[in-house]
Amino acid sequence: MNIKNKNIERWATLIKAESKRLGFLSCGISKAEFLEEEAPRLEKWLNKNMHGEMQYMQNHFDKRLDPTKLVEGSKSVISLLLNYYPEKKQVKNSYKISKYAYGKDYHFVIKDKLKQLLYFIKEEIGEVNGRVFVDSAPVLDKAWAAKSGLGWIGKNSNLLTQQVGSFYFIAELIIDLELKYDNPTTDHCGTCTACIDACPTQAIVEPYVVDGSKCISYFTIELKNEIPPSVEGKFDDWIFGCDVCQDVCPWNRFSRPHQEPLFNPHPDLLSMTKKEWTELTQDVFSKVFKKSAVKRTKFSGLQRNISFLNEKS
């Protein structure tokens, strides 16, 4: 083995060890190159308007598929997973919010960890240029995570792993350093159709294809206009996001509670009843969801979602 190969292997090992120290679930590395297989899929999905009113999905098509257009001279995409599965969940017979939004907004939590990892790389290896990405730039995070062997993209279009299911965030570091690359894993969905059968709005239109414009998460978070009458009675009490296709996935029986204190919910959140949700005030919203991802839909958006369920119940 020559010196160069020894270095890229040693550096990859160093980076993975540090990512674990920072609390990441796992770390995989792939070569920064054009995502040839994803290009026709993304184009077809957009042409069928499965992004609904999420116009940003149409932007930067080339950048979504080619990391070298995001980071000049980039050679490696480092994909990282951070567990958010909660130890305790909301009381039953309440309006529900997606588990990823229980605690502090993940953008802040992960970005801080990524910056620490990039700093570590520069300190240990030398002059390395790169950028951190947390769901806020045109990066196909699930495709990169799958390419680097962290899991496979399941029939519900989420990244799945045999060891820990799918309740985790995905983030990336794109850097101009060559590293030892990991290989993709195999698909373990088999003949299972649990997610397809359970989706309340039939948003999984075929295995591995989700019509984003039919998803409860889209209606409760992304859609800014009125929720259409066509989905009346189909929300299963979800008012922010939806976890149904993850909750029914057999691989999520291996989910384990996260160890990140910042993801712990406000004490009042888990015990809130439907009555308390309906009577929610701006002050209580600001207190319970301080620095939370739920703020994305704003108080008015959450009120709209609750009213929609109340009117149709």
From TrEMBL:
<comment type="subunit">
    <text>Monomer.</text>
</comment>
<comment type="pathway">
    <text>tRNA modification; tRNA-queuosine biosynthesis.</text>
</comment>
<feature type="binding site">
    <location>
        <position position="135"/>
    </location>
    <ligand>
        <name>cob(II)alamin</name>
    </ligand>
</feature>
<dbReference type="GO" id="GO:0031419">
    <property type="term" value="F:cobalamin binding"/>
</dbReference>
<feature type="binding site">
    <location>
        <position position="192"/>
    </location>
    <ligand>
        <name>[4Fe-4S] cluster 1</name>
    </ligand>
</feature>
<keyword id="KW-0819">tRNA processing</keyword>
<keyword id="KW-0170">Cobalt</keyword>
<dbReference type="Pfam" id="PF13484">
    <property type="entry name" value="Fer4_16"/>
</dbReference>
<feature type="binding site">
    <location>
        <position position="245"/>
    </location>
    <ligand>
        <name>[4Fe-4S] cluster 2</name>
    </ligand>
</feature>
<keyword id="KW-0560">Oxidoreductase</keyword>
<feature type="binding site">
    <location>
        <position position="189"/>
    </location>
    <ligand>
        <name>[4Fe-4S] cluster 1</name>
    </ligand>
</feature>
<feature type="binding site">
    <location>
        <position position="159"/>
    </location>
    <ligand>
        <name>cob(II)alamin</name>
    </ligand>
</feature>
<dbReference type="InterPro" id="IPR004453">
    <property type="entry name" value="QueG"/>
</dbReference>
<feature type="binding site">
    <location>
        <position position="199"/>
    </location>
    <ligand>
        <name>[4Fe-4S] cluster 2</name>
    </ligand>
</feature>
<keyword id="KW-0846">Cobalamin</keyword>
<feature type="binding site">
    <location>
        <position position="215"/>
    </location>
    <ligand>
        <name>[4Fe-4S] cluster 2</name>
    </ligand>
</feature>
<feature type="binding site">
    <location>
        <position position="249"/>
    </location>
    <ligand>
        <name>[4Fe-4S] cluster 1</name>
    </ligand>
</feature>
<keyword id="KW-0408">Iron</keyword>
<keyword id="KW-0479">Metal-binding</keyword>
<feature type="binding site">
    <location>
        <position position="242"/>
    </location>
    <ligand>
        <name>[4Fe-4S] cluster 2</name>
    </ligand>
</feature>
<feature type="domain" description="4Fe-4S ferredoxin-type">
    <location>
        <begin position="177"/>
        <end position="209"/>
    </location>
</feature>
<feature type="binding site">
    <location>
        <position position="195"/>
    </location>
    <ligand>
        <name>[4Fe-4S] cluster 1</name>
    </ligand>
</feature>
<feature type="binding site">
    <location>
        <position position="224"/>
    </location>
    <ligand>
        <name>tRNA</name>
    </ligand>
</feature>
<dbReference type="GO" id="GO:0051539">
    <property type="term" value="F:4 iron, 4 sulfur cluster binding"/>
</dbReference>
<keyword id="KW-0671">Queuosine biosynthesis</keyword>
<keyword id="KW-0963">Cytoplasm</keyword>
<dbReference type="InterPro" id="IPR013542">
    <property type="entry name" value="QueG_DUF1730"/>
</dbReference>
<feature type="binding site">
    <location>
        <position position="156"/>
    </location>
    <ligand>
        <name>cob(II)alamin</name>
    </ligand>
</feature>
<comment type="function">
    <text>Catalyzes the conversion of epoxyqueuosine (oQ) to queuosine (Q), which is a hypermodified base found in the wobble positions of tRNA(Asp), tRNA(Asn), tRNA(His) and tRNA(Tyr).</text>
</comment>
<protein>
    <recommendedName>
        <fullName>Epoxyqueuosine reductase</fullName>
        <ecNumber>1.17.99.6</ecNumber>
    </recommendedName>
</protein>
<dbReference type="Pfam" id="PF08331">
    <property type="entry name" value="QueG_DUF1730"/>
</dbReference>
<feature type="active site" description="Proton donor">
    <location>
        <position position="135"/>
    </location>
</feature>
<comment type="similarity">
    <text>Belongs to the QueG family.</text>
</comment>
<dbReference type="InterPro" id="IPR017900">
    <property type="entry name" value="4Fe4S_Fe_S_CS"/>
</dbReference>
<keyword id="KW-0411">Iron-sulfur</keyword>
<dbReference type="InterPro" id="IPR017896">
    <property type="entry name" value="4Fe4S_Fe-S-bd"/>
</dbReference>
<feature type="binding site">
    <location>
        <position position="64"/>
    </location>
    <ligand>
        <name>cob(II)alamin</name>
    </ligand>
</feature>
<dbReference type="GO" id="GO:0052693">
    <property type="term" value="F:epoxyqueuosine reductase activity"/>
</dbReference>
<dbReference type="GO" id="GO:0005737">
    <property type="term" value="C:cytoplasm"/>
</dbReference>
<dbReference type="GO" id="GO:0008616">
    <property type="term" value="P:tRNA queuosine(34) biosynthetic process"/>
</dbReference>
<feature type="binding site">
    <location>
        <position position="170"/>
    </location>
    <ligand>
        <name>cob(II)alamin</name>
    </ligand>
</feature>
<feature type="binding site">
    <location>
        <position position="217"/>
    </location>
    <ligand>
        <name>cob(II)alamin</name>
    </ligand>
</feature>
